[in-house]
Amino acid sequence: MEPNFKQSLFKYFNFTKKDWEITEQYFNLIELKAKEPFLTEGKISNRIGVVESGLLRSFFYGENGNEITTRFFIPGSLVISVVSFTQQKPAKESILTIEPTELVIFTHKDFQELLKKVPAWQQIPLVSSEYMNRQKEKRILEFQTMPAKERYLKFLDKYPQVCRSATVGQIASYLGIDIATLSRIRKNV
Known about the structure:
Blueprint: H1 5-13, H2 17-24, E1 28-32, E2 37-39, E3 47-61, E4 67-73, E5 78-79, H3 82-87, E6 94-107, H4 108-117, H5 123-145, H6 148-158, H7 160-165, H8 168-175, H9 179-187
Antiparallel strand pairs: 1-6, 2-6, 3-4, 3-5, 3-6
């Protein structure tokens, strides 16, 4: 099976056939069951992945011990704890599957080798970082300017898979809405 990300590499990063042949030597396809960890808080991230199918989420524990969801990873998403992976420091968050998930995985060591052997890979972390920063800025602006109902409707439209598979609590914490408020919003939608 060829991963979906192959087409993206050719389309967006001008990969050559040789670039792909080298890249193929460095990744593995893995399957994780529902509720299986990709990364556990406090551990150093030694791998990144691209979601082929399934769904994951990143979260950390708030001061009350409650889980605060920070991101959902849908097919096509890059699954990474940026600081932990790039700086090889313990992760501040956990990343867990919500449903059975298939991923293309690169170890930290293999990714460093790819950066040396395939020049096209050098632009991917930069583009990914820029995209993630834009998404964070957009999310902050939405928190500051959009009412809870609008945030939920936009989320529902953009991430139907997440709305079908994640719990109300996970979605509520991601949107910064308490569960009771989100439940009322969902009843009236």
